[in-house]
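All the exercises in this workshop are built on plain-text protein records. A record pairs a protein's sequence with a compact description of its fold. Backbone structure tokens are a discrete shorthand for how the chain folds in space. Once this layout is familiar, the rest of the handout is easier to follow. As an example, a complete record with its sequence and its structure tokens follows.
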Amino acid sequence: MRRQGDEETGRRRNREQGELALLPEAATDYPVAESNPIADWLQKQGVASTATQTRYWYSKTQWVSKFEWKEDGKKAKTIRQGHIKSNGLREWKKGTKDWKAYKLSEAVKHCTDKWVLGVEGEGCVETARAIAICAITWQGSNWTPKAMSSTSSAIASDISLIWT
């Protein structure tokens, strides 16, 4: 029979030994680039009509879209934030609600008392997930002490973070 003290010791040992949090299996639900028509207003802001869009959902109502295209033989990209308003309309703005870290709920669900990678960008999170490593990132301008502290508070009893 395991006692609570034994459980705490095991958790502390996992963190001290740097046990990396792994997903049960490699993720296959990663976002993919799509070639859909680019809205005129985005083209007026410099997004090429030939751009592909990859949408990363942070929640049921918040996403980040990465647009990529070739310009003078070089890769070009831009990022746009969006959210679904309370009236159901989509708006291409960050909105007023706080954004949680990308894939945070997955980290909390699968990675109790182990190290989770905090990486730069959604693409890096998806690369880690593709090899069953648990990772999170923050949306654009949300790499702030307040946002990171909020995330740490939400998961402090469940996981620890490593920033790469």
